[in-house]
Design a protein that fits this description.
The structure is a homodimer. Chain A has a seven-stranded parallel β-sheet with strand order 10-9-11-8-7-12-13, with helices on both faces. In chain A, strands 5-4-3-6 form a four-stranded parallel β-sheet, sandwiched between helices. The longest helix of chain A is centred in the N-terminal third of the chain and has 21 residues, at 3-23. Chain A has 14 helices and 16 strands. In chain A, strand 3 (119-124), helix 6 and strand 4 form a beta-alpha-beta unit. By secondary structure, chain A is an alpha/beta fold. The radius of gyration of chain A is 24 Å and the shape is globular.
Amino acid sequence: MEIADQVIATCRKARDASRALALAGTEVKNEALRGAAAALRRETEALLAANREDRDRARRQGVSPAFLDRLSLSRERIEAMAQGIEQVMNLPDPVGEVMKKWQRPNGLIISQVRVPIGVVAVIYESRPNVTADAAALCLKSGNAVILRGGSEAFSTNKLIAGLVAEAASLAGLPPACVQLLESTEREAVKVMLQQSDSIDVVIPRGGESLIRTVTEESTIPVIQHFSGICTIYVDRAADEDMAEAIVVNAKTQRPGVCNAVENLLVHRAVAERFLPRVAKRLADLGVELRGCPRARQLAPGMTPASEEDWDTEYLDLILSVKVVDSMEEAVDFIARHGSGLADGIVTADEEAAVRFAERVDSAAVFVNASTRFTDGYEFGFGAEVGISTNRLHARGPMGLAELTTYKYVVKGSGQVRE
Amino acid sequence: MEIADQVIATCRKARDASRALALAGTEVKNEALRGAAAALRRETEALLAANREDRDRARRQGVSPAFLDRLSLSRERIEAMAQGIEQVMNLPDPVGEVMKKWQRPNGLIISQVRVPIGVVAVIYESRPNVTADAAALCLKSGNAVILRGGSEAFSTNKLIAGLVAEAASLAGLPPACVQLLESTEREAVKVMLQQSDSIDVVIPRGGESLIRTVTEESTIPVIQHFSGICTIYVDRAADEDMAEAIVVNAKTQRPGVCNAVENLLVHRAVAERFLPRVAKRLADLGVELRGCPRARQLAPGMTPASEEDWDTEYLDLILSVKVVDSMEEAVDFIARHGSGLADGIVTADEEAAVRFAERVDSAAVFVNASTRFTDGYEFGFGAEVGISTNRLHARGPMGLAELTTYKYVVKGSGQVRE
C-alpha cells in the first residue's frame, strides 16, 4: 500500500473507533487501562529487547548520550510507565459531566455536557514513555489516539502501543482506539496533518521546530506546547526572604523545564539590599548571572547581559537580572520578552499584586509563589497532557478535562420557534 | 508601501491596541459602543452614499439581485445596525469573571479568570452589517479586531469601521481596536493568515469555499462556521402532533439557514400514520419531499431521493424523508450524513431520548424541540458571533464568552516547589 493510503486508512479507523470509545463506560475504559499496565509489566523483557534494537540503531547513527538516555527504557522506567497508566485509571472520568444547565423562558432546558474531542493525534520525540502516557490519557478521556513518536524509538513505541491496543481490545473496545503511525517517513506525517475529516486535534510535544513545522503543515487545529521564558518581578514591597526563596526555587529546583525562571526583575528601591544577597545565594548554587549595568554595579560578579539574554530560554543554571524603576516597567518587560507561559510578582502590597495579575497576560500569573507550580499535577488536575501555550481551547496546564469538548442537549416539550 | 508590509503593520497595530483594550473597564467599552451607534445614525447619509458607490460598482460587474440585496444598506438597516451595537453594549461584560477558584493543600489559591482572546480577525462576505456586529462583539469582549469584508462592500465597510474606530478613540481607546484591512487584494488575506504572532484567532463567516480556503492558508487557529445538515428523527414513541409541529417549524420557519432541518427520519412503526399527514401539511406549505422507496409508498407525491440527497444542505423548501427500522439506524444515519451541527428526536420515551442524546455527536441535540433553536439568542447568550462547527474552544452557538479565554492567577504566601 502507498504510504498515503496507509495513513488515510489509519485515520479512518481511528474515527470509527472513536465513536465506540466515546460511548464506553468508565469501567470498560478502566479495565483497558488496568490491562495495559499489566501487559507492560508482563512484557518487560520484550520491551527491553525492542528498546535495545532502537538504541543500537540510534547509536550507529551517532546520536548524543543525552538523546540515548531519553530513548532508553529500563525495568524502572517500564514500571513507572505502568504506574502512570494506573494513576490515570484512578482519575475521575471527565466524560458525561454536566458543566452547566439552565432553563429558558420558553421552558427549554439546556445542558452543556462534556464529551470527548474525538480523535487526537500526538506527535512527539524520543521518549517512549509518552506513548503510554498519551495513550492512557486519551483512552480515559474517551478519545481515539494516533501516535507518531520519533523514528529512533519506533520498535519500542510499536510494542507499547500494541500492548495498550490489545488491552483495549480485551476490554471490549476497538483496538484502533490506540494506533501508532506505521510509517516513519516524513510524508506520513504530512498526509496525516491533512486528514481534518478524521482527526480533530493535533498535539505536538517536543522542540520548537517540531511544533512550528506541524503548525505550518496542519489543516487540523494544533494545541501548541511552546516553551517558556518566565520572569519573576521582585516588587519594592517584597518580603526579601520570600523573594529569595522563590527565585532560588524557580531557577534551581529543575532548571531544564519550561516553568523555570529565566529573567529576574528587581525594583530599584530594594535592589541595593536584595540583589547582593540573592546573587550570592544563586552563585553558591552554581547559577551564572547576567546583569544589566545597574545590577552589575550592585552585585559584582555578574557577566553583562546582552539584549538577546532577555529573550532567551536558558533551560540551564543561568539567570538574567535587571533593575527596573517601576512595576509598569516590569509589566512592559514581560509583554515584550516573556512567552506568556508563567510570570510572577513577589510583593506584600495587595494592590500591586492585583494590578500585576491584571496586566500580565500569561497563562499563569503567580503572586508570592514559584513559577514552578505551573503544572497539571500541582494545579490538582491529577494528570498532565502538557502545558498549552495556545490561547484557544486550553491555556496553561492541560488535564483530562482539556481533552474534552462539550455538546448541548436541549430538552423541550414541543417548542417551536416563532 | 507593499501590500505585505501594510498588512503586517495593521496586524501589529492590532496587537498593541489589544493590550490597552484588554484592560479597559466596562464603562469605557460601553461608551465606545454608545458612540459608535450614535455615529452610524449621525452619518446615515454618508453611509448611504458610500453604499451607493459599492452597489453601482457591483451592478456594473453584473452580480445577482440576491447579492445586490445583501450588499444594500437602507435607513432601516442602518438603524438596525445601531440598535445591534446598543444591544451588545447592554450585555454583561465577560472579562474578569472568575470562572473557577480553588485552594490546593499547600495553600495556593488558584483562580481561573476570563480574559479576552487578544486579536481576532473576521473574514466575511457581502453583508456590511457584519462589520458593525463583529466590531461591537469584539470591542465588548475586549478583543482588537481586524475586519476583512467582501471587496464589493469596501466603501461601506471602510466607513462603518472608521466610525466605530473613531468612537473607540473618543472613549479613550486606541483606534486600532477596530481596523479594516485596507487592501482588497487576495494577497492581503494570504499575508494576514500568516501573522500568528499578531493574530490569535480567525473567524471566517461565509460560504464553505471561503472557510476551506481560510483553513488551508492559515497558520492561525480558525473557528469554522460550516453549514448544517440537520436531521429530525420521529421515534416510534413520538407524539405525532408534536412531531408534525416540530418538523414543519424546523423546515419552513426559515429554510435558508443552517439550523433548518434537511432530513426527516421516521420510525416504521409510526410511518404509516405519520408520514401521510406530515407530507400533506408540508406539501401545502410548498415543501418538495424527496423520499426513500418506503416513504414514497406511504405518502405518494414524493420524488425519489437519491443517495446524494441525504448529504445535501438544501437551504430551501426541500426535505428528504426516510423510513428507518430503529433508533440505532437513525443514529447511524446522522453519524454518516449529518454535519454535527444540530439534530433532534421526537419521542415520549425518556429512555430513547437519553440514548439518542448520548449517541448523537452534534453540537446541539434536541429532544422534542425544533432544531431552529440552535442560536445564540435562543440559548440566552444575548448576542451571536456565529455557530461554531469546530470541536475545540467553542462548539455550537458562540456568544461573548466564547470570544474569551482564561488565565490562572495563583496566589501564595511564599510557596516553593519541593
